[in-house]
Amino acid sequence: MSCRRIVLLGPPGAGKGTQAAAIVRDLGIPHISTGDMLRAAVKAGTEIGLKAKAVMDAGELVSDEIVIRIAEERLSQEDAKNGFLLDGFPRTLSQAEALEGILDRLGTKLDCCLALTVDTEAIVKRLLKRAEIEGRADDNEDTIRERMRVYERETAPLLDFYRERNLLIEVSGMGTVEEVGERIREALR
Ligand code: AMP
To answer: Rounded to two decimals, what is the model's pTM?
Structure first.
């Protein structure tokens, strides 16, 4: 079975963004990143952007209500009919349940949840180094540790959620971008 309706999961710094770009290019499906949509809203100064900015800068989660609304709007668009890669959504159990409802209403369902597994300590080190070089507001040590805690507490339970539904495919995210990309292509085939 080939997966075209995909949820991509993984802790911050697992290389989700990079791998997402390669997957959507290979499969010709839209890349739906709630993080990108929220950053665009912040930049445009919309009402959602104004609400989300401080929360995002602190490494915490924007409310389920807001992200569920923007995910539903995006998934309802024509180009998501034949597949999509969700990156950064869902991030909580309520979002995962809401996603089932959204896809139900659209008359479709997920094909798989691709989870990148990594060594979190190695990742924290890598993120800290990147933060030092780039000086990102959401990338200082406290924020990085907070994002990791939020991931463990809110998002890691989704692994069981998708495992129970027989949708979970775990792929090691350790190694070079090419190595991980090859593993993903194999897994999605
Ligand atoms: P990302 O680019 O996916 O790491 O998202 C950047 C930030 O946007 C996160 O740290 C959250 O503050 C917010 N965000 C993105 N997606 C979600 C989501 N599904 N639920 C809650 N907050 C989100």
So the answer is: 0.92
The catalytic residue among 130, 145, 183, 185 is 130
* CA-closest candidate to residue 70, choices 82, 93, 46: 46
CB atoms within 10 A of CB 149: 12
DSSP state of 179: H
Distance CA(108)–CA(72), nearest Å, equals 13
91 an active-site residue? yes
Which amino acid residue places its CA nearest to atom 8 of ligand 1?
A: 35
Low-confidence ranges of the chain (pLDDT < 70): 1, 135-139
Answer whether 19 contacts ligand 1 (Cβ < 6 A): no
Question: Quick one: fold of 5-188?
Answer: Rossmann fold (3.40.50)
